[in-house]
Design goal:
alpha+beta; Serine Threonine Protein Phosphatase 5, Tetratricopeptide repeat; 47% helix; 363 residues; 4-stranded mixed sheet; 10% strand
Length: 363
């Protein structure tokens, strides 16, 4: 029995970005939907609760509060048992997952398996997320993965339960499974269309699947009902920047500063607006990077060396970028590189280490 949170065991599953099914870590194709699992597919160890655009305005952990509101009054644990175990035979329909050993969770798992009801699964899922909110350290990844599995089972039994749908939407968003998040947010909003904070998060998910125009429409709906909504106004500014309309981005972002709920949120947004102001400095590549809501504040400089363009960043989580987001980012850079450039190299400005490199397609 551990008195503090230790490390989980190594990952034994790979999440399909299309259907959120848990597959074996060495799988090449999803056993549920058949989609190819690319090398960069997100595994439990790679699940991060940060490095995404929405954190610029929403802040870390914005989903956790709503998750645990439905935990039915469970008491907080005195400790979390961090040894993990892979559940044998748990391949259908949700795949094998690692579970954090915890006496209270084990009791709720047994009850959920015995009762096989949405109520029992909701109680288990809510308690798991209480553990996350209380601080689970390295065990957090295994807990989040189990929560997705639990609520996925629950939604099959209660497909119109708002709490289950919202938990799944927030969880899949946090894990960067944005197509899944869009689906669950849409189902939730069909039931409760006037939930403005959820609609703003839905807009954020839309932007991540390259449906920026629809994201703007959703944010405008929120602002029609709540003109001083900071989240919607700030993310609308970011969406305008993604479309290349810098004038609207600056105007909307400046307006959002008036509604900032705390100094941290205001500082984040001010930094983003400053990056827009800096767009005139440097070449086309510099402008694209400085106006990017994720990479802009991490960018240091660009340096051309013959046929290679070196881009320097500080504390830039390149490896955490989902494959589709990375592909889109590179696609925005290629048309802007100086003539004759054959390769772009991403560098860490402090260590001098190479983060990644990509070949520039022939034009």
């Amino acid at each position: 029995m551990a008195d503090n949170i230790g490390a989980t065991s190594s990952s034994s599953s790979k999440i399909c970005p299309s259907c959120a099914h848990n597959n074996g870590v060495d799988s090449s194709f999803c056993s549920k939907c058949g989609k190819r699992l690319v090398k960069e597919s997100i595994t439990p160890k790679q699940i991060l609760l940060s490095a995404i655009v929405s954190l610029l305005v929403f802040g870390a952990g914005w989903g956790i509060t709503s998750w645990v509101q439905s935990s039915q009054g469970r008491t907080k644990p005195n400790q979390i048992y961090t040894e993990t175990k892979t559940v044998p035979g748990a391949q259908s329909p949700h795949g094998a997952i690692e579970k954090v050993q915890d006496p209270e969770l084990d009791e709720l798992r047994s009850a959920a398996e015995k009762e096989n009801s949405p109520e029992a699964l909701k109680k288990l899922g809510g308690t798991i997320l209480e553990r996350v909110k209380a601080g689970a350290g390295e065990a957090e990844q295994a807990l989040l993965l189990e929560a997705v599995d639990v609520f996925s089972k629950a939604v099959e039994k209660a497909p119109e339960d708002p709490m289950i749908l919202l938990n799944l939407a927030d969880l899949t968003f946090e894990q960067k499974l944005f197509p899944q998040a869009v689906k669950y947010y849409e189902r939730y909003l069909k039931l409760l269309p006037n939930e403005l904070p959820v609609r703003a998060r839905y807009a954020s998910a839309l932007a991540f699947v390259e449906r920026v125009d629809e994201a703007i429409q959703q944010l405008e709906l929120v602002l029609e009902k709540d003109p001083r909504n900071f989240q919607a106004t700030a993310y609308l500014a970011i969406s305008y920047a993604q479309k290349g309309d810098m004038a609207k981005a600056k105007e909307t972002g400046t307006k959002a500063l008036e509604f900032a709920p705390n100094p941290e949120a205001k500082s984040r947004l001010q930094h983003f607006l400053s990056s827009l102001e800096a767009q005139g400095a440097g070449g086309g590549v510099d402008k694209v990077i400085r106006t990017n809501p994720v990479a802009g504040d991490k960018f240091v400089k660009s340096e051309q060396k013959g046929e290679v363009l070196n881009l320097y960043f500080k504390n830039f989580p390149m490896q955490a970028m989902p494959p589709f987001a990375k592909e889109k980012f590179f696609g925005q850079l290629y048309p802007q590189v100086p003539a004759g450039t054959k390769e772009i190299v991403f560098m860490d400005s402090e260590s001098g280490q190479e983060l990644e490199r990509t070949k520039v397609p022939e034009r």
